[in-house]
Structures are given as structure tokens and as C-alpha cells.
Write a structure and sequence with these properties.
2 strands; globular; 14 helices; about 80% helix; mainly alpha
Length: about 425
Amino acid sequence: MPSERLRRVALIVWIAVGAVALGYVLLIVAGSVRVIWLPIAFGAGIVFFLEPLVRALERMRMPRPVAAVLALLALIGLVIAVGALVFPTIREQAAEFGQRLPDLYLAGINWVREVGASLGLDVDELLSQQAIEDWLNDPANQETVQNLLLGFGAGAGQVIRGFAEAIAVLALAPILAMYILIDLERFKANSLDMTPPKHREEFAFVSGQVGTALSSFVRGQLLVAIIVGAASSLGMWLIDLPFWLLIGIIAGFLNLIPFMGPVVGGALAVLVALLNGSVTQAIWAVVIMIAIQQVDNHVITPLVQRARVNLSPLVIVLALIIGGTVAGLLGVLVAVPMTAAIRIIVGHLWRTRILGETWGEASQHMIEYTEPPDRIAGIRRRHPNQSRLFDTQELPSIAEEEQPTLDPSDQTSPR
């Protein structure tokens, strides 16, 4: 009936309006307690990284709380060991950077003078004391100076807040990760119990797909960041570039953000090489960083990330911009996995409810699985189509012949 159809349309519209309003309120509330979200995000990353180890220890008949504590202690011990190994070199390079900073400054000034001379500009005259005083005494420029000072004060406040957040992350993230690892099974069981019975299997399936994609992304990004950082440090060391370890660490850390690691690392390497007076080193730095990026994109990432959500580069860039605008560093770090999770959920609902596809068909259109090499395929712990978030006994396989027998309307139309 037209009236019934109109009622359903109006209901959908009001639900959408309510969802937008609720999302806006949640953003305001989340912004007021933003200091806690970064530890939660890093804690969740630790959980995704350690969950396979915890499951392996559980298969050895170890209680889950003990397995979670041992896995976390092993990770902390590994971080401390690596830190103790590289810290002396980092300290040495940092001290060298402090000693060479005046020389680097003079080299930069000379470079600016050469560029200015090539453009017909006298840099020394532009930066003379009289020119600076004339510029500062101009009333039109005094407001600009005041704004710069206010901006500097705000920037100093952000730096202090950033240090506070860093301390919170270091202190709270491992603790949160430990409690999440211990209570993860209970959380999964409670989530299924709160789901209506007619939607329980589908909820478990979609949650499993989201968990598989997120865990693969997090573990893959961490491993790739380590590999990129090590390869960048080795490459810069081979060309005898100053501060090679610092550049590699920065490139590896920023590789947690898509497209950022080799680009920023390469720019820093080129800058250091040019200030060091070696164009040859700068060219070699560019070649090495490009090679690392290509190997990362075409070999390492497909090998490490077994399950990937098909997101175009444009979508990734837009997600990074929006995430950075809304939540700063935290938004940049979680933008891509959150976008992938939203795409899985919305894509599943659209393809099953609107296009009439089965669960398996919808999953194949959204998630790309990479099979392991033949030599290690036989020792694979888990089939890529099985959930990493919900246990296999709770989750139907996405293979069509293994799907549960349900009424067709269960997969093609909303309840």
C-alpha cells in the first residue's frame, strides 16, 4: 500500500536524521575526553597483534589470562631488547646532529643564497637587520606578528598535550591490551547473546569479516613498518648518509600511515644529503627509497596482509584527510581501518539486501584474500575465509556450500 511504503520511507529518513544527530553528539563527547582514545587505539592494535600468540598458547592448554600476560610480557621484552640494541646508536647520532646543527644551518643559508642569486635576488639584503626592522615597524605587519606569536603559544600547548598523550599511551595501552585480551572471549559471547536470534549468525559472519580485515591490516602494517624501517636504515647506511638510523626509524614509524613512510623518509634523506654537500648521496637516497616503496607495495604488503579490503588510493587519501582533520594523529592512524570496517558492513548490507547476493558473494566483492606460497600453505593455521574475531563454531563459512540453511528473505531483505 502507498501509505505503508510512505511510512517506511519516513521511518528510514528519521532513523538517518537521528543517526546523524547521535553521531554529532558522540563526536562532541569524544572530543571532550580525547586523551583516552589514543591509548585505546594502541591497545586495540596490541590486541590484534598478540591474539594469534594468545590462541597458540591456549592450544597448549594454558589458561587465557596466563597466556595474555605471557604474550604481553614477551612483546614488552622484545621492545626493550630492540631499544637497548639501537639506543646507543640513536644517542650517538642525536649528539652528532646537535654538534653539526650550526654547520647544517650555514649550509642551508648558503643554499638559499645560491637559489636567490639564480633568481636575481639579494638574500643578504632581504635578511639584513635594517630590512627586518623596517618590516617589523610597518603597522600592517604588526598584526601578522601578533598572530604568529599567538599561534606559537597555541602550538606550544599542543606540544605539551602531545607529550601528555604519549605518556598516557605508554602507560595505559599495555594495561588496556592485557584486560582486553583476557576478556575477549567473554566479550564475543556477550555480543552474540545481545544480538537477536534471527540475526545472530549474520552478525557473527560480518563481525568475523571485520575482525579478519582489521587484524590483517594491523599486523601487516606493524610488520611492514619494521621491514621498511630496517631496509631504509640499511640503505642509508650503505651510502654512508649521516643520521641513517634516525631516518630509517622515522620512515618505518610513518609507514604506519599509508603512503607516508618512504616519502617522508626519502625527503629527509635527500635534505640531509644536500646539506652534507653530496648530490650523489641525494640521488642514491631517492633510488633506494623508491625501490623500498615498490618492493613494499608489490611484494611485502601482499605477502604479509592475507586479507585486504579493496580501497582505492583516492578513498584512502580522503580518509586520511578527514581523519586528520577530525581527530589529528589518532584520526590519521585509525582512518584506513575504520573506513575498511565501514565498507565491509555497508557493503554487506547493500549487496545482500539490495542486490540479493549471498554472504559469500558479498564478501568476495569486498575482501581480497592472498594465498600463502605453496611451500608454507600446508602449515597455515587458519583458512583465510575463517573469522579471526569469532570462533569458527560461532561463524558460518563464507563458502556457499557451507552456508546455513536459511529462508531466502533472510539474506536479501531486512527483517
